[in-house]
Design goal:
Strand content: 25-35%
CATH topology of the largest domain: Ribosomal Protein S5, domain 2
Structural class: alpha+beta
Largest sheet: 6 strands, mixed
CATH architecture of the largest domain: 2-Layer Sandwich
Radius of gyration: 19 Å
Oligomer: single chain
CATH class of the largest domain: Alpha Beta
Helix content: 25-40%
Number of helices: 8
Length: 288
């Protein structure tokens, strides 16, 4: 993904909001407040949404374009900008355009990534200079995935998403399949069938082949399309669901192999070739 460009003062266009994969996802417990304790390996992909930002002097936060199924007042991107205003006391506002490519409810972190990019972009445009640590604090109050996107590299994630350690993973190619359904995260975590006591693993002893996604059996039981997509992709390589679903993925040995598999995807689904991304493009753009 390309870094954003600033064609004129007060404007930042093409800000990338990359997707992520959960290479595994274990639920290790539950806090008294109801939040689940997790362990996961998060990986950035070179594919995602992009956003444009223009400063407003009247303090208003406005999404310029319509997004089907995502009203402006419920958009995590808008909530992120408003949270940054409150945390900093900033009197500027912003017009925001979201160019949506990631499927909603796909487990790829699209909404969280859009919100994290919003925090990083507006931190620059508004001249705040809050830095990574403070932005992660603001992001965590909005969603468990936001701190990872602001962290900006592959990570071993624990707690409710706030504890991150760097992971050094070799570059990889993936096939990602969206089976045409949206899986509400809250429904999966609320299921009585969910395993909530997986023993914790240690990052220095992490072997991905011995891990799993604890949410996958629940999603497959409630959303047969997820199970069907996994079964289809398993013909070509070991496959797994990302996040709470619905998207599934498999690592393959080359871009050409990924393209070949994606090209054979049944017409009722969508499939993409994606590569791992070493760093969030916002980190190398002068935004942070």
């Amino acid at each position: 993904m390309q870094a954003p460009v600033a064609p004129m003062p007060g404007r930042l266009d093409g800000c990338p909001a990359p997707a992520k994969l959960n290479l595994f996802l274990h639920v290790t417990g539950r806090r008294p407040d109801g939040y689940h304790l997790l362990q996961s390996a998060f990986r950035l992909l070179d594919w995602g949404d992009t956003l444009d930002f223009t400063i407003r002097d009247d303090g208003r936060i406005h999404r310029v374009n319509d997004l089907p199924g995502i009203p402006e007042d419920a958009d995590l991107t808008i909530r992120a900008a408003q949270s940054l205003q409150r945390a900093s006391g900033c009197t500027f506002g912003a017009d925001i355009t979201v160019h949506k490519h990631l499927p909603v409810g796909g487990g790829l972190g699209g909404g969280s990534s859009d919100a994290a990019t919003t925090l990083m972009a507006l931190d620059r445009l508004w001249g705040l200079g809050l830095g990574h640590a403070r932005l992660r604090e603001i992001g965590l109050a909005l969603g468990a995935d936001l701190p990872f996107f602001i962290y900006g590299r592959d990570a071993f994630v624990e707690g409710i998403g706030e504890t991150l350690q760097p992971l050094d993973l070799p570059p990889a190619w993936y096939v990602v399949v969206a089976p045409g359904t949206s899986v509400p995260t809250a429904r999966i975590f609320a299921s009585p069938e969910l395993t909530r006591n997986t023993p914790p693993v240690r990052v220095h002893r992490l072997t991905l082949s011995r891990t799993r996604n604890d949410l996958q059996p629940v999603a497959c039981a409630h959303y047969p399309e997820v199970a069907e997509a996994l079964s289809w992709l398993e013909q070509f390589a070991p496959a797994r669901m990302t996040g709470s679903g619905a998207c599934v993925f498999a690592a393959v040995d080359s871009a050409a192999h990924a393209e070949q598999i994606a090209g054979r995807c049944p017409a009722r689904w969508c499939a993409w070739r994606a590569a791992s991304l070493a760093r969030h493009p916002m980190h190398g753009s002068g935004v942070m």
